């Protein structure tokens, strides 16, 4: 029909060559679903804080957009944080939710007894852990 294809809103490629490409429509739909996960499954409200410690996977950007949609404050962290760093950030921010992958989840679990504000934990990945919600399953 002579029209050029639309540019993707999001295009991610990892070192192995795996790629994720979302159109603007797909990004909009996924970010609405993710915002609903944060609001409903995690019980977060506008102004609540969430700490996200993830490698730069597609869900990292999806959470950024979802937080903007829901009015939730995203506090990013590097995956090099130690349990002590995580504990400090949880207490200083009064975050109600923590999002990470299965590699860092044990460090988060080790500081849970001292985190009085944390209400929910989201894990990004294929696996599951007791007491953690799986973002992919909820989407």
UniProtKB/TrEMBL annotation:
One of its GO terms (molecular function) is medium-chain fatty acid-CoA ligase activity. This is medium-chain acyl-CoA ligase. Pfam families: AMP-binding (PF00501). It comes from the Eukaryota. The lineage of its organism: Eukaryota, Metazoa, Chordata, Craniata, Vertebrata. Belongs to the ATP-dependent AMP-binding enzyme family. GO terms for cellular component: mitochondrial matrix. It comes from Rhadina sibilatrix. The keyword Ligase applies. It catalyses: a medium-chain fatty acid + ATP + CoA = a medium-chain fatty acyl-CoA + AMP + diphosphate. Its EC number is 6.2.1.2. Residues 3-127 form the AMP-dependent synthetase/ligase domain.
